[in-house]
Amino acid sequence: MSDQDDGPPEEEVEEGAPAWMATFADLMSLLMCFFVLLLSFSEMDLQKYKQVAGSMKFAFGVQRDIKADQIPKAESIIKKEFSPGRPDPSIIKSVRQQTHDDTKPISRPEPAMPVPVTPAEIEALIERVREGLKDEINNETLEFIPYDYGVLVRVKEDDAFPSGTADIQPGFIPVLETLAEVLSDVNAKVVVSGHSDDVPISTPVYPSNWVLSSARAASVVHELAEARLANPDQIEIRAYADTRPLVPNDSPENRARNRRVEIQIGYGIDGY
Q1: Buried (b) or exposed (e) across 50-70, using 16+ Cβ within 10 A?
Q2: Run means of pLDDT, 10 residues per run, the chain, 272 residues
Q3: Contact predicate 191/141, CB 8 Å
Q4: Which helix H or strand E contains 236, and what residues bound it?
């Protein structure tokens, strides 16, 4: 026996990884597969992703188009995206309505004031219309009525329309062509309004006097446009049915007078 103590015997070391490493690797692989599976089931908001990616880019100062003279400084993404000064509320499906206080009067717009014109301009307008429609006025095909801001041309039903229809009679079309030439020479507003008597009408084409009066006014405007009216945007159509009679509807003659189309030509027309 040797007097030198050789110490404890050396342990044998096995080659390769220890056995627990295989179990750990299997566990990590299963976890990775699990999270990949969760990611595949999730839905990615592409717009939100681009916003966050853009915020990261600008916050860390990467991908600059120009050379930076200073060291890039970080910026708070939360402050940039969720600043109280730029709220982004969620859209909620709800029914909303506007209400008003019944105790307070509802404000209404003031009526339009007449366009300031001189008496000479008004007189020139009246004379131009009178001269252009001289023959029709003399033949009593049209009724010519001057007033403060212009002139009113009245068309009778018997001269322009068959009874109960809005079809213009062929013999009245040349009169409207002459009127279109006159209107093309004046810079004034034109209101074409249809009127009827108080006898109700109910046909498949014209279910009421409102429809009939508006259809007759529209027929007149259509013929004026077909006659190449220079300024078609100056014309307005109105329908009054039997609400504005000239005379009481107490006789066939008076009802015939109330069935008419009026063409008002003037300045500052709002209502009459």
Answers
A1: eeeeebeeebeeeeeeeeeee
A2: 55 70 89 85 68 64 57 55 51 51 50 64 88 89 88 87 88 89 86 92 90 93 83 86 92 91 82 42
A3: no
A4: strand 235-241
Listed residue (161, 166, 142) closest to 153, CA to CA = 142
Straight-line distance from the first to the last Cα atom of the chain, in angstroms, rounded to the nearest whole number: 141
Q: Residue 191: inside a domain, yes or no?
A: yes
Long-range contacts of 126-130 (CB under 8 A, 24+ apart): 126/150, 126/151, 128/182, 128/185, 128/186, 129/153, 129/182, 129/186, 129/265
* 135 and 103 Cβ atoms separated by less than 8 Å: no
> CB neighbours of 185 closer than 8 A, spacing ≥ 6?
128, 132
Residue 228 has what pLDDT?
Answer: 76
Cα-based angle 57, 35, 52 (whole degrees, multiple of 5): 15
For residue 130, the tally of other CB atoms under 10 A from its CB is 15
Question: Mind giving me the DSSP string for 109-164?
Answer: PPPPPPP---HHHHHHHHHHHHHHTHHHHHTTSEEEEEETTEEEEEEEHHHH--TT
* Amino acid sitting at position 228: R
Residue 156 pairs in a beta bridge with 260
Domain-embedded: residue 23? no
- Please count the structural domains in the chain: 1
Tell me, yes or no, whether 239 lies in a domain: yes
